[in-house]
Description:
A: Cytochrome Bc1 Complex, Chain D, domain 2, three-stranded mixed sheet, 11 helices, B: mainly beta, Immunoglobulin-like, five-stranded mixed sheet, three-stranded antiparallel sheet, SoxZ_dom (chain B), Thiosulfate oxidation carrier complex protein SoxZ (chain B), SoxZ (chain B)
Amino acid sequence: xxxxxxxxxxxxxxxxxxxxxxxxxxxxxxxxxxxxxxxxxxxxxxxxxxxxxxxxxxxxxxxxxxxxxxxxxxxxxxxxxxxxxxxxxxxxxxxxxxxxxxxxxxxxxxxxxxxxxxxxxxxxxxxxxxxxxxxxxxxxxxxxxxxxxxxxxxxxxxxxxxxxxxxxxxxxxxxxxxxxxxxxxxxxxxxxxxxxxxxxxxxxxxxxxxxxxxxxxxxxxxxxxxxxxxxxxxxxxxxxxxxxxxxxxxxxxxxx
Amino acid sequence: xxxxxxxxxxxxxxxxxxxxxxxxxxxxxxxxxxxxxxxxxxxxxxxxxxxxxxxxxxxxxxxxxxxxxxxxxxxxxxxxxxxxxxxxxxxxxxxxxxxxxxxxxx
Lengths: 256, 106
């Protein structure tokens, strides 16, 4: 009789997704990496993400636009003024009526204060300034803002996280809530906390944003990736930051 | 100018083996990869790295298209005398960059 086995398989495929990760079990993907990759991240002279941070520092001081204004002209010393900022993003932007990610906020600053167009998504400059700003929060716990508007965005992001999608019919939660710590092929499945973005990913041989990583996963489950800066990606990010609340920022993290 | 991170001890005792760690920002475009239009992107890599210690070459390496982007090189040498350590990367399209550091040997 093969029926009971088949019935069990059907049950597994149709079963609802499991529970969230218990707060005391939440930890950074850093701990699942090889000792060599961990050493690369912790040594600032070996971490290739630091090259982007240094680029960002130069861009922070570079005057741009018709007003000839730099980030530093308004914000001063980033080491003081930007400390903890990345731990709070995405944040609600009342003027625009949308949640805005850290890179999106840099775009807004460029448009409103410097009077120049935004850098394209995943451009070297945009990643560098984002990495420089986020680096100032290294070691600080992720602390999502309490605005009620953000709660609604987070809820939409959470629904996306648990929604099965793509030809493989997988939800984010099917791997990262239900099966973290196990392996998919040869690769460990992480809990997927966005603690170190922009990250230097060895597979990319470059620095990339959380949105790039999310789009990777979406095409991995054979779903159509949301375009860069789509509201869905910001909402997912807002949800993930809430899910990772309390974990320290690692930017620039190194990931395999 | 590419951005480089160099880690050389500032002081050492005579005869110590010192570790030199270098990281430089470079695309290391292999020449085998098609661009968005399907045409191969021309090769653009660092081809040679040398380290001189007071003008004497103590380490050199040849680099090839299989090297990762942003190459990270670690090597050791013996601290023999106080002076200057110069690191030079050269490559395609006239790429050339030198970083120097001073070391105090007691």
